[in-house]
Amino acid sequence: MGFCPAPTCGSGQPLVETTPAMSSAANSSWTPAQAELVQELSSLELDSQRRIESPCQELNRVLGGGIVPGSVILLAGEPGVGKSTLLLQVAKDMAASGRTVLYVSGEESPQQIKLRSERLGFAGEGVFLLSETDVDAVINRLEESRPGLAIIDSVQTLYSREAPSGPGSVVQIREAGLRLMRWSKARQVPVLLAGHVTKDGSVAGPKVLEHMVDVVTYLESQEFGAFRLLRCAKNRFGSTDEVGVFEMTEAGLVEVLDPSKTLLSQRYDQAVGSALVPVLEGSRPLMLEVQALTSYSHLPSPRRVANGVD
């Protein structure tokens, strides 16, 4: 029973539960026009272009030869490591090969992206920008433009009005990832997602996001230095043992095709306590330098300390 708060009234009326009506925009989530049919595996025909090769050889190496049409790729990394720079360079390369790219940003304005593209020496032909965080509005724009590649920066900024929580929550990230994956599979358009990481280095959000996407990659930085390593933690279309090496410069991320030569360029050949060790990273052999330093110890049990060696 509820009572009127007016001092001259005080009458009681039963409480009636009401449910707020969903707006028309909330019910505008994209669904395929035609339901998927049951098909026999032997009757399916593969597309002649099974992979989209990027001009970036290091990216092709990590992805197993290129981007598979209809795949969803998650690029995770710490803030400031260069995720947005790498995604913009991928957009530049794809546009140069004749594919239109829709770059959706929920963190930067179009003017800020334009400033970064000018720093990379890219005028922006073939790359279209959209500043939007409503995942349903994003998918509607994707359906209208039908680009050759879609880039979302980042998935943590997207939200759905149908999910009862704020952007960045577990429910919102799951819903956004699921809807983008459905559209990508239905239209055979690859989607690149930028994702944040937590303090322990894992992808922020629900683990189901990593299960839904086809490829999970991590862009890592060294504690000191300008090198960036692109590693693959999951790949449904290739190996996860490969690693791509980049160097952060004023002109963006530059791929390092010969890491051994670059890493050993400052090495002194006659240095005492230094040795070269071959290490195999996937199919690529790397020559690394291992240094040893000894000093007299007054302790009864001298210590051996290793840094950077597993």
Description:
The structure is a single chain. With 310 residues, this protein is an alpha/beta fold. The protein has two domains: 49-257, Rossmann fold (3-Layer(aba) Sandwich), CATH 3.40.50; 258-310, no CATH class. 23% of the residues lie in helices and 24% in strands. A hairpin with a 7-residue loop joins strand 9 and strand 10 (243-249). It is globular. The protein has helices at residues 57-63, 83-96, 110-119, 135-145, 170-187, 207-212, 259-263; strands at residues 2-3, 12-13, 72-77, 101-105, 127-131, 149-153, 191-195, 215-221, 227-235, 243-249, 252-255, 274-281, 284-291. The model is unreliable at 20-27 (pLDDT under 50). It comes from marine metagenome.
Supply the CATH superfamily name of the largest domain. Answer: P-loop containing nucleotide triphosphate hydrolases
Helix share, percent: 10-25%
Instruction: Give the number of helices.
Output: 7
Span of the ends, CA to CA: 68 Å
Flag low-confidence runs.
20-27
Strand order of the largest sheet: 5-4-6-7-3-8-9-10-11
Q: What percentage of the residues does DSSP assign to strands (E)?
A: 15-25%
Number of separate strands:
13
What is the overall pLDDT average? 86
Level-1 CATH class name of the largest domain:
Alpha Beta
Secondary-structure element pattern, one letter each: EEHEHEHEHEHEHEEEEHEE
Structural class: alpha/beta
Bulk shape: globular
Total domain units: 2
InterPro entries: AAA+_ATPase (IPR003593), P-loop_NTPase (IPR027417), RecA_ATP-bd (IPR020588)
Organism: marine metagenome
GO molecular function: ATP binding; ATP-dependent DNA damage sensor activity; DNA binding; hydrolase activity; metal ion binding
Protein name: RecA family profile 1 domain-containing protein
